[in-house]
Amino acid sequence: MHTGGSGFLGSHLCESLLASGTNVICLDNFFTGSRSNIEPLLDNKHFELIRHDVFPIYLEVDPIYNLACPASPIHYQHDPVQTTKTSVHGAINMLGLAKRVKARIFQASTSEVYGDPSIHPQTEDYWANVNPIGARSCYDEGKRCAETLFFDYWRQHKLRIKVARIFNTYGPRMHPNDGRVVSNFIVQSLLGKDATSVIELIGHVRRSCIGRCRRTIRSSGGRIFRARRNYYRGGRARRSRTASFKPSPTSRSC
Ligand SMILES: NC(=O)c1ccc[n+]([C@@H]2O[C@H](COP(=O)([O-])OP(=O)(O)OC[C@H]3O[C@@H](n4cnc5c(N)ncnc54)[C@H](O)[C@@H]3O)[C@@H](O)[C@H]2O)c1
Question: Could you say which of 139, 170, 231, 232 is catalytic?
């Protein structure tokens, strides 16, 4: 079973599981995902869609991929209480199911568990620098709590778990208003607004990459703009307040 299967990453995972001959049950409440992402799969006899929250559900499944959770700051800050509930209740419910049916379970975690990290690049033994009460905490702390639950189920109940800390991913079916740097860069460039993208790009990359970016931008006829320090965090917060997001009216909250 696959929670969050109609989202950006989830729909690709559904496709690849089906291609490998696996039967897939996709559970999604369409909060940020959409039916159109999985439309081509609906006729596949090995694919089943359940429009459902990550509430307790009783199914004989193995393995379970738990991806249900809005991932973009615009989406997860739209309803922060629901974001935490989805991460924490979702993990509890799916781990409970995995324990009952003795299934293997995978958790889609995130690089955001490192918060505002003080070391680069982050290693898995780095414990992070996370603000528990900020606007982004619903996601960061929700995912951290989910990781805690996964590892406690492993220690206490010997559950077979996998936790992947995914870093920013981009590709087909990503929402154009996702709000993260790579999609912003591509969308703004496609709309001819490359100046903003360049500022953002320079604001985001590590110092060691800036020289290479400058050379690439200049050689392709672009202009260089200087970004403020901390543009990244300030920019993300500013965009999150102004960007609009309307979840599917039929999505339910847990
Ligand atoms: N995309 C990335 O760069 C990235 C980075 C790190 C971690 N992740 C994690 O990967 C997973 C998928 O990310 P994505 O980019 O595909 O996001 P997405 O928003 O496109 O997909 C999330 C899916 O979960 C569903 N969902 C949300 N709340 C739900 C609930 N309460 N019950 C059932 N379904 C619910 C949404 O409708 C959507 O289909 C998330 O858990 C996210 O935290 C993604």
Answer: 139
